[in-house]
């Protein structure tokens, strides 16, 4: 079995973790475990949803893949010694160490993105640069020789997870997982990236983000 460890923490963005989980758990050879500072529930960024940690960081010492989600809570965790030490300890033996959205801030805070291009949510690009990485506005950024993959905001984690299945198993497995979740995006609007959104849409999105701080 390939063990994928997904850290959870207070004010995590649910889809950053659950989107990739829905892809990865479709493949029989992949097991997903949710890890955290302690077992039990954490609440997502708006407090409306609870997710459960199955294990503590010190109980998962050799995951094959690490997938760090984002969320408002990452702003505090970049100063957290426990998660930084865990990332630094497990990364040398992972097959891939990955992030979704502002999970990249935690990889950068642990020193894993020093000098590398990486992606995150568009609002956090400057923060990522300040932690030693080089933000690029791409949906998924791969550094396969370094075993690092980062994905941009929220929904891009599904794309990255499909790519992970291809890398871990094969292309057919990834396509089967995509079919199983019927991932065939046909959104009613074309404003899903900063490059495509008009200024009033960016202003409204910024207003909503500011309201959650």
UniProtKB/TrEMBL annotation:
GO terms for biological process: regulation of DNA-templated transcription. Transmembrane segments: none annotated. Residues 204-213 have a biased composition (Basic and acidic residues). InterPro entries: Class_I_gatase-like (IPR029062), DJ-1/PfpI (IPR002818), INH-QAR (IPR052158). It comes from the Bacteria. CDD domains: GATase1_PfpI_2. This is DJ-1/PfpI family protein. It comes from Mycobacterium europaeum.
